[in-house]
Amino acid sequence: MYADLGHFSQLSIQIAFSFVVYPSLILAYMGQAAYLSKHHIIESNYRIGFYVSVPESIRWPVLGVAILAAVVGSQAVITGTFSIIKQCSALGCFPRVKIVHTSSKAHGQIYIPEINWTLMLLCLAVTIGFRDTKRLGNASGLAVITVMLVTTCLMSVVMVVCWHKNLMVAVAFTLFFGFIEGLYFSAALIKFLEGAWVPIALSFIIFTIMYVWHYGTVKKYEFDVQNKVSINWLLGLGHTLGIARVRGIGLIHTELVTGIPAIFSHFVTNLPAFHQVLVFLCVKSVPVPHVRPEERFLVGRVGPKEYHIYRCIARYGYRDIHKDDTEFERDLICSIAEFIRSEPSSAGNSTILFRDPDSAEEKMTVVGTSSSNLNGVTISEAEADSGSLSNMAGASAQAETVTTPDKPRKRVRFRLPESTPTLKAETEEELNELMEARESGMVFIMGHSYMKAKRGSGKLKKMAINYGYEFLRRNSRGPTYALSIPRASTLEVGMAYHV
What we know:
Residues 1-234 form the K+ potassium transporter integral membrane domain. The protein has helices at 10-38, 59-90, 113-130, 133-161, 167-189, 197-226, 231-237, 262-268, 325-342, 425-440, 459-475, 480-483; strands at residues 100-101, 110-111, 244-253, 273-286, 297-301, 309-317, 350-351, 364-367, 378-383, 396-398, 410-415, 442-452, 490-498. By secondary structure, it is of the alpha/beta class.
């Protein structure tokens, strides 16, 4: 009954339930009912229950089976909780936690240390606090029947939305099963003060945490959208952005898929220099299990070509594994190089994602990872002390090597497909610029925000933002992609958000 689709196939679960689990349950319940119907009054210290109906000669073996069943059920609850928390965290409905993938083949097998310890402490607290199986049974009964009632309501939604059944069929299904489960639910509520209040209290606490986190996340995103910098402001600065452009790639993490984040203007107004190549990176979790590698990146251009500013949206499913920083950097640079190479003839490979009246971005091109795009641009890096700028004719190109006293530079080479036609001069120059910037290194620029409710906000909003959300943000983990970023190459830009 507690089988997980992440560990077993659908067919194996159907066969096991139909021919083993369901007949066993029916026999067990029928046996209990037959015993209780004959023994209404038991003159003993035992209460009427499951073990009273079991013959004394096999009571201890049945107890052993029950313990093993409890172990299986508890493990199923734990793994199910891991899966739900992971999906909620990916959709922005739960604070970020550490997720460990225990299998390289089955992505559904995960382990979340924080949740595992929390479940252990809750189990100990409930057991020590009650010290009575009757109250534990009341709490468990209300939790189980509530799950059944909620499942019935959600099943009616699935029937209409996914299965495209008639609305009256879904209503009839809900009324029939909902009426039966409603009777059990009302009976379980009678035991509210006798232990049934525990699952309601825990669900209220978890709901509050999820609501506060989601509310704060939405408000933060709305603040970013409302305070994003206009593209006209950027165009007014000129191709040098009004400041010195130093060598290297500046990778700015943002949650915006369009426009320029406020941290960019905050940075350039306080520091007089920026990198020769800028990339606005947005990492998005989409509500699907996996995103195909050939559809991983959406790459576009911000402003004219001479600005050397790009936007890249990296999409991950809630079961995708984020790569380490080295492999991710390689895929990112290759996707931008492929975008530059195929931009003149990318009509069949691009999609018009959005149009912003204040933006010069017209379309984003779907570009896969370097491993999935065999006919695209690939990159090779090798240690080198010196080098020279070579012509990009043929199937490869390399940029001038620059050495610094602190660490050796790498010679970067782009390998182009043999079928690539002769590149235009401006395309060749742009690829040279990207290679030169890659050789000089990459700096990760991240915003470090502090949220606070505006003056005049209600008390509930102030409590949710100033205390609830900030407490959760400080005590939760950072974004998944931020965990693999080398700290030596990270620059944080602080900003105060008044929402």
